[in-house]
Amino acid sequence: MAQARTNGRSWLRYAPIAGIALALAIACWAGAGSYLSLDELAERSAALQAYTREHLLLAGLGFVVVYAAAVTLVFPATLLLTLAGGLLFGWFTGGLLTILAATTGATALFLAARTAFGDVLRERVGNGLIRRFADGFRRDAFGYLLVLRLSPLFPFAAVNIAPAFFDIPLRTFVLATLIGIAPGAMIYASLGSGLAATLAAFGTSRHLELADLVSLQTTLALAGMALLSLLGLVLKKRVLDRPRRVEGRADVASDA
Hints:
single chain; mainly alpha; disordered C terminus
């Protein structure tokens, strides 16, 4: 009887991650991706802007809920949603809402992954990349996660899940995520805030690409993204690659 209850509880830990997978499957089956495209945003931008002006609080709440759900479900629409946030709320408010929503969704995914798999991978940490991540998080969890957040080299979803395997405190995860995603969120929201003029110029007569959004304002935003990428490369070299260099020196010393 006790063994059955233990087995039941062990299976229950997979419920959150299973729920996320099921919700993602339903969203894909329902064709949610067709509603989250640049063309769809262009077609509905006027109606969305009018609704936002009339129902600002409700529109903001809806944006946060949809964005957080997309992050939790690992649905490939966060870039478009960030642009939409800048378009509907302006770069500053849109950026703040994006940061709030992305942090909420990332935290939900982190907790689900930690509940389901946290103790599994920790028991199997050996050498190689996993060991390097584990050592980095153990040495300075906040700083290491902050670097991962600032660097655009690492997929957002992967950085949401990976810390779940390495005993990262929830408070550390939330704070590092909140700070680390802020620059990118503000830059992309700024890019989105210039959409109104671009959409007015191009209309909805043809398929839109991200290259169509380039203007003086968007050029400045893209320059900001380039600087952020450069910062990510510098931080990666100085922080994430440091364990490899240290291990290499230790090996030389032991051989001597």
